[in-house]
Task: structure prediction
Amino acid sequence: MNRARYIRVWLAIALLMVVVGSSATAFGQTASPPAVNGPKRVNLYSHLLGSVELPDGFSGYMTNDWMDAWAGHIESPTGFKLIWRAGLVTKALEDSKDKIEWIREEKVGDLVIKRASVKEAKGKTLVTSFGWLEFSAPIRNEDDEKTFTLLTESYKKEKCVGCRSLPRRIKN
Result:
């Protein structure tokens, strides 16, 4: 008789948990907190390339995944496009050595950060490199320059454990 009673009590508790859980969801309560508006930190790649904060409305993708190099871009709703490259791939600064307007280097810990402005026929391009990871973007106006600075200064050289990685849109 004790065993039958034990099973009934256990089933009653399980049923109660299901009812309470479903009624909480019915009243708008969810198991996870609602999405927060504002910048969202994302990993550039699912491994150790680092992470940046994407402002609201921005999207980003990984567009190349070679054996020893990776590339992608981040876009704003207004048409601003930042390109990132990492690994053993030709960088924007290497391609444009004769067109560099200015270049600044600073050392933060064991990381050398290079910031540069490249003057091209179609306009100015800003470039920031963190060791073997480089960001570049054509600059159309002052807002583009501020956006570039905001994104590159949000970079952290570590994988964000609770963050998603940029989705893959691999080009052949």
